[in-house]
């Protein structure tokens, strides 16, 4: 019934029979069964077909979700071998999945680098989200009830789900919303508490023409740019649900005040010793052990570069975590023959980033590692850094100037800093100091593996987008011919009956094209939704929002010189490696592939007149 006009056959390599959209004579079947992921790698979400995801069914949807980095650290024992790692990598390469690559956004010649530094939490130490984040969540929830007067109902409201939110989202503190936007700050997904907002509701709240919303910054917004902040979002949404509930005792609390209370309680739970005590009792329960950690650090140090640690954690907690990371045992166990301090040239704890990167007035203290007492110091002012560090290399506080002196570097471009926090570790250090940066993105493995698994679905989406573009092109050509005939129909040289027939034929064709386009667009929406839900049933791809790069992806591209899934991926490359980025590509670089170019090229052939005449003849 719905046919393409014969004029389109002039470019058969790019054309397709649209009959498959309606189930007849199809040359490429797009109506396939739902694509499902089957791997059990970290951050993998098994998908239910065409579900409307709500808080009530979300946990059952994730019943087979595996813990963070489980594929790379499946055992808590340090018995995992390099041979096993190589075997896993070989299998990944054969399947086309992620195999630990370090990606480059900005050229970086490691031969010019004098020092390599690391954050600890979620960088050197990869925490198990299903156990570690629960500590902060439960501690904060208890304090909200006991110290801030929130209803006891909160304690039994639900249990923490570490998979519900992801990095790169934004908290609208004034409205109780969680937002995902693209790199242009166009809001595409909004949840109020655990309830999704419709497109109409979303557009009314975040109208892109209103400049007030173009910033999305403090004090009204908070960015979930680290895995540490995910419990904050979950607890905040629970309070939003309670506040909106009929008869709630916290109705007089504003959303923004509730978010402030959540932040205070989460911070307290990290400072009051509860988390340190639990992690110290059984670090294997909360931290992934990576046997490549010590070899990786030694490899960098043996290359002649200085290795440093800058973490916001205080020394007592840092000692617990680093001891486990380098020995696979908890502090105090017998048979330990590795002193983690020897792996670093400079260690700075309690750094208070990002203030460490901005305020040159922050005081530096030396830490006595035996007593954990602090001693005043001003850094190496009248002696060499080597002599100064011989008295002790563990410090607390300070600022970037102290660090540069301790490392004996004259420029920020001489060091590389590896971290997980976009704001505190990467953005500030890159923008303010010119440090070279590497961002650790544990979710990267899941993102790439799902892309590989969903290749066929991605191809189907590409075909549908091509069909939509061709229909738009064809409609534009028909409309152009229709307008030209309208303008010329009163000319004496024209056969008015013939012109009328051609106008009727062109009008009928435009209606047919619009019907085909509407149906192909619906098919495209369904396939695109299915594709994004393969990554996460609510928030989709970490690096995409719709077809655009997400806000998170834009920041990775702008501020991270390098990025990878875990620090020990540095074992796969030489310490003197020269990283080179891929060429940037803009739409005009792919001129021949752009829809407008195809349209202009098609117009040059000008087959519309003949096609319209043929169509009018068949109508008679």
Automatic annotation (TrEMBL):
<keyword id="KW-0378">Hydrolase</keyword>
<feature type="binding site">
    <location>
        <position position="420"/>
    </location>
    <ligand>
        <name>Mg(2+)</name>
    </ligand>
</feature>
<dbReference type="GO" id="GO:0046872">
    <property type="term" value="F:metal ion binding"/>
</dbReference>
<feature type="compositionally biased region" description="Low complexity">
    <location>
        <begin position="70"/>
        <end position="82"/>
    </location>
</feature>
<dbReference type="GO" id="GO:0008253">
    <property type="term" value="F:5'-nucleotidase activity"/>
</dbReference>
<protein>
    <recommendedName>
        <fullName>5'-nucleotidase</fullName>
    </recommendedName>
</protein>
<dbReference type="InterPro" id="IPR036412">
    <property type="entry name" value="HAD-like_sf"/>
</dbReference>
<dbReference type="InterPro" id="IPR008380">
    <property type="entry name" value="HAD-SF_hydro_IG_5-nucl"/>
</dbReference>
<keyword id="KW-0175">Coiled coil</keyword>
<feature type="binding site">
    <location>
        <position position="121"/>
    </location>
    <ligand>
        <name>GMP</name>
    </ligand>
</feature>
<keyword id="KW-0460">Magnesium</keyword>
<comment type="similarity">
    <text>Belongs to the 5'(3')-deoxyribonucleotidase family.</text>
</comment>
<feature type="active site" description="Proton donor">
    <location>
        <position position="121"/>
    </location>
</feature>
<feature type="coiled-coil region">
    <location>
        <begin position="457"/>
        <end position="523"/>
    </location>
</feature>
<feature type="binding site">
    <location>
        <position position="119"/>
    </location>
    <ligand>
        <name>Mg(2+)</name>
    </ligand>
</feature>
<dbReference type="InterPro" id="IPR016695">
    <property type="entry name" value="Pur_nucleotidase"/>
</dbReference>
<feature type="region of interest" description="Disordered">
    <location>
        <begin position="70"/>
        <end position="89"/>
    </location>
</feature>
<dbReference type="Pfam" id="PF05761">
    <property type="entry name" value="5_nucleotid"/>
</dbReference>
<feature type="active site" description="Nucleophile">
    <location>
        <position position="119"/>
    </location>
</feature>
<dbReference type="InterPro" id="IPR023214">
    <property type="entry name" value="HAD_sf"/>
</dbReference>
<keyword id="KW-0479">Metal-binding</keyword>
């Amino acid at each position: 019934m719905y046919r393409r006009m014969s004029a389109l056959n002039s470019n058969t390599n790019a054309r397709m029979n649209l009959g498959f959209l309606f189930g007849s004579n199809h040359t490429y079947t797009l109506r396939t069964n739902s694509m499902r992921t089957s791997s059990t790698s970290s951050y993998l979400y098994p998908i239910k077909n065409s579900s409307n995801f709500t808080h009530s069914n979300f946990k059952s949807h994730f019943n087979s979700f595996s813990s963070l980095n489980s594929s790379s650290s499946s055992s808590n024992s340090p018995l995992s071998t390099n041979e096993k790692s190589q075997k896993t990598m070989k299998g990944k390469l054969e399947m086309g999945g992620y195999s630990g690559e370090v990606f480059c956004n900005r050229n970086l010649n490691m031969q010019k680098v004098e020092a390599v530094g690391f954050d600890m939490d979620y960088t050197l130490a990869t925490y198990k989200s299903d156990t570690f984040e629960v500590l902060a969540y439960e501690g904060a929830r208890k304090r909200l009830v006991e110290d801030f007067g929130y209803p006891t109902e909160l304690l039994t409201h639900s249990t923490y789900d570490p998979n519900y939110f992801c990095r790169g989202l934004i908290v609208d503190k004034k409205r109780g919303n969680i937002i995902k936007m693209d790199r242009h700050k166009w809001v595409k997904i909004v949840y109020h508490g655990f309830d999704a907002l419709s497109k109409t509701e979303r557009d009314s709240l975040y109208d892109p023409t209103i400049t007030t919303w173009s910033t999305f910054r403090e004090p009204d917004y908070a960015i979930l740019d680290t895995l540490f902040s995910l419990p904050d979002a979950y607890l905040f949404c629970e309070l939003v649900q309670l506040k909106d509930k009929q008869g709630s005792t916290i109705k007089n609390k504003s959303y923004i005040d509730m978010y402030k209370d959540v932040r205070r309680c989460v911070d307290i739970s990290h400072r009051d010793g509860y988390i340190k005590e639990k992690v110290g009792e059984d670090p294997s329960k909360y931290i992934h052990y990576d046997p490549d950690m010590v070899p990786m650090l030694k490899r960098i140090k043996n290359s002649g570069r200085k290795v440093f640690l800058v973490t916001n954690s205080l020394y007592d907690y840092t000692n617990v975590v680093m001891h486990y990371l380098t020995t696979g045992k908890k502090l105090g166990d017998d048979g330990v023959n590795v002193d983690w301090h020897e792996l670093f040239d400079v260690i700075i704890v309690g750094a208070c980033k990002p203030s460490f990167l901005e305020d040159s007035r922050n005081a530096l203290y030396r830490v006595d590692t035996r007593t954990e007492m602090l001693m005043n110091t001003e850094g190496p002012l009248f002696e060499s850094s080597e002599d100064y560090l011989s008295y002790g290399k563990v410090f607390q506080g300070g600022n970037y100037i102290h660090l540069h002196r301790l490392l004996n570097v004259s420029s920020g471009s001489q060091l590389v800093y590896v971290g997980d926090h976009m704001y505190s570790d990467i953005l500030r250090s890159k923008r303010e100091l010119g440090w070279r940066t590497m961002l650790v993105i544990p979710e990267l493995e899941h993102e790439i593996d799902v892309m590989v698994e969903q290749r066929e679905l991605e191809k189907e989406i590409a075909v549908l987008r091509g069909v939509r573009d061709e229909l738009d092109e064809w409609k534009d050509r028909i409309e152009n011919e229709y307008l030209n005939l309208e303008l010329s129909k009163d000319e004496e040289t024209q056969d008015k009956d013939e012109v009328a027939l051609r106008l009727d034929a062109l009008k009928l064709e435009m209606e047919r094209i619009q019907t085909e386009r509407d149906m192909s667009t619906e098919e495209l929406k369904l396939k695109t939704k299915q594709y994004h839900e393969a990554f996460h049933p609510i928030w989709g791809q970490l690096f995409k929002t719709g077809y655009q790069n997400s806000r998170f992806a834009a920041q990775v591209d702008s501020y991270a010189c390098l990025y990878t899934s875990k620090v020990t991926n540095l074992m796969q490359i030489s310490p003197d490696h020269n990283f080179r980025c891929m060429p940037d590509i803009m739409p005009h670089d792919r001129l021949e592939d752009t829809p407008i170019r195809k349209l202009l090229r098609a117009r040059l052939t000008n087959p519309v007149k003949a096609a319209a005449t043929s169509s009018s003849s068949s109508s008679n």
